[in-house]
Amino acid sequence: MQNRPDNNYYLVFNSQNNPLAAKVQSVVEVLEKQRITKIPKSPKQIMGVISFRGEIIPVIDPRVILDLPTHQFDDFVIIVHKVHNDRYNETLTVGVLARNVSNVIEVKPLDILPASEFNTVIPEKYTIGVFKNSGSFITILDTDKILAISDHTIHDDNQN
Question: Considering the domain boundaries, does residue 160 fall inside one?
């Protein structure tokens, strides 16, 4: 599966002023600003839930998980991902809050550098690497690792 051509495409988006990217394979859809229903006593990274194609899905703020500064966006998009949770051996649909989406670009595997070579604000354990695009460096997120934290929290809260 690593050599499939679509593995080289990444959705570029912004969270705060940080350009980030996620593999296109995990992205289901990008939604314009939606009404997010708050869930009482939910973990702080879970903004609430939305209805997506008849399914209620959680909306995660990755800035909380990545320990980045947070403030409320006036305008935002929700990037809907399919992520695999190894702990429960299941695939979940999760919305991720972002300021905006800029484009989809192709990045050759040889152009992806280890995040450890850069002073990124994103913890290295949540990244696939970094690449240069139009003069700026973009961090590629490992969405399965980032969103698995939220998935664990959702499941653990339901067990209490």
Answer: no
Please give the C-alpha separations between residue 130 and each of 104, 118, 122, 137, in angstroms, as whole numbers: 15, 8, 11, 6
Model pTM score = 0.79
**What is the count of structural domains for the chain?**
1
- Concatenated DSSP letters for 53-69? TTEEEEEE-HHHHTT--
Give the Å distances, CA to CA, from 121 to 11, 13, 23, 106, 137: 19, 15, 19, 23, 12
- Got the DSSP string for 84-120? EETTTTEEEEEEEEESEEEEEEE--GGGPBPGGGS--
Question: Cα(103)–Cα(12) distance, rounded to whole angstroms?
Answer: 5
Three-state DSSP at 43 gives coil
The pLDDT assigned to 155 comes to 41
**Residues 108-155: tens digit of each pLDDT:** 999 999 887 776 778 888 899 999 888 888 999 998 888 775 444 444
Domain boundaries, position 130: 5-155
Residue 71 domain-assigned? yes
Could you identify the residue written with the tokens 């959705």? 11
Inform me whether the pLDDT recorded for 77 exceeds 60: yes
pLDDT in the model for residue 104: 93
